[in-house]
Amino acid sequence: MASSSGSDQSPAHPPASGSPTAPQPSRWTAGAARSLTKTRVFDVRGQSYAHPVRGTEREFVVIDAPDWVNVVAVTPDGRLVLVNQFRYGIDAFSWEVPGGVIDAGEDPVEAGLRELSEETGYTGRGARLLATVHPNPAIMSNRCHLVLVEDVVRTGPQAWDPDEEIEVALRPVDEVLAEARAGAITHSLVLCALFAYEPVWRERRGRGV
Predict the structure, then answer these.
(1) For the residues of 128-162, what is the DSSP string, one character each?
(2) What is the DSSP letter of 54?
(3) Pairing of strands 92-96, 99-101
(4) CA-CA distances (angstroms) from residue 38 to 44, 64, 71, 104?
(5) Binning pLDDT at 50, 70 and 90, where does residue 66 land?
(6) Helices (H) and strands (E) in the chain, counts
(7) How many whole angstroms separate alpha carbon 177 and alpha carbon 202?
(8) Is 163 helix (H, G, I), strand (E, B) or coil?
């Protein structure tokens, strides 16, 4: 499936070492779009695309959702702030990092600080963007921003949304990374956040911080 993602360009992928250069796929041209349905969390559209070489035209389903943010929040003693909550999509509990929906026009880092405070009551310093990923570029047009906040401490009460009920835990970074590799954490965007943070953590440990 193809999806449109505004002006974002696909990253270049070099061929594997020792392999011949593969032919590049064609970039489909976006055409007309039509609304298929709207919900309170995302919209669904039918997006027409034409292949520039084959001359074929197809309609693909694209989900338009707001951008999201996930927060890697680290305490001064090297523990991660984790949240555990019931997830309706999998009908089970899920251990994750704090995160949520970015409001229209909101800066991703500011959104991360807001979500961290609302879900956990923690605040910190040195907030910065670690990375930005596409949750599922085959069918979704939005992005998830991964934000790092350091030296976090509990400074206030939680401010949950009406349907939220969140358990907060502090876990050593190395323990969380090991559990992620062992399959105990299954939220794909949380794994992306931990993957982006791990080299930062390794460098920090190497400096003895």
Answers:
(1) EEEEEE-S-TTTB---EEEEEEEEEEE-S-----T
(2) T
(3) unpaired
(4) 6, 9, 28, 17
(5) very high
(6) 3, 10
(7) 11
(8) coil
Q: What's the pTM?
A: 0.87
The gap from C-alpha 23 to its chain's centroid, in whole angstroms, comes to 31
Domain with CATH 3.90.79.10 in the chain: 68-206
> At 11, is the secondary structure helix, strand, or coil?
coil
Looking at residue 2, its pLDDT comes to: 43
Q: Please name the amino acid found at residue 186.
A: T
- Tokens of residue 160, six digits: 């949950």
Distance, in Å, from the CA atom of 202 to the CA atom of 208, rounded to the nearest integer, reads 10
User: 158-165 contacts: CB < 8 A, separation 24 or more?
Assistant: 158/118, 158/119, 158/120, 158/121, 159/117, 159/118, 160/118, 160/119, 161/118, 164/85, 164/119, 165/85, 165/86
CATH fold for the domain made of 68-206: Nucleoside Triphosphate Pyrophosphohydrolase (3.90.79)
Write out pLDDT tens, residues 1-54. Answer: 444 444 444 455 555 555 667 789 999 999 999 999 999 999 999 999 999 999
What are the pLDDT digits (tens) for 103-153?
A: 999 999 999 999 999 999 999 999 999 999 999 999 999 999 999 999 999
State the CB neighbour count (10 A cutoff) for residue 184: 10
Determine contact, residues 98/190, Cβ cutoff 8 Å: no
Residue type at 18? G
